[in-house]
Amino acid sequence: MRLLAVIVVLLTAGPLAASAAESTGTGVQLSDPVGTGAVLELVLGLVAVIALILLLAWAVKRVNLLPGQRSGMQVVAVLPLGQRERAVLVQVGEKQLLLGVGASQVTLLERFETPVIEPKRGPDGVFSKRLQDVMRQRGSITSPRSEPDA
């Protein structure tokens, strides 16, 4: 309760002192808080803070301080299979791993000793065609059925 009283006194003392100083003419004159100088100072401060944030982000990316940046793993291709499921081909050293990624688990589907797709060289669609070919060879999937015309 005392804290509330102190806050009320402090909040009301400032305007009362300013009005008393104006009436006597001996008070300190306050500058306009929304003047050009104040706005310019505010804008320059914001620009400096944003520039500092961008500089630090660039430095962190350049120095590779983020975990996992030099792990030797690379996602080669991703094939969506459903709403939350996808097949992901990951390059680890000289091997490639085909992973099934679901909402709650990751499953190793196949391990390739030789690269199936060269990283960042294959055009879009090559992964899905190659995946279907490999799965057909292993007997995992059957060829698409032809629907009889009605």
UniProtKB/TrEMBL annotation:
Subcellular location, record wording: Cell membrane; Bacterial flagellum basal body
Keyword Membrane among UniProt keywords: yes
Tree of life domain: Bacteria
Keywords: Bacterial flagellum, Cell membrane, Membrane, Signal, Transmembrane, Transmembrane helix
One Pfam family from the record: FliO
This protein's record includes keyword GTP-binding: no
Stretch forming the signal peptide: 1-20
Transmembrane segments: 36-60
Principal location listed in the UniProt entry: membrane
Protein family per UniProt: Belongs to the FliO/MopB family.
The protein's name in its UniProt record: Flagellar protein
Organism the protein comes from: Marinobacterium zhoushanense
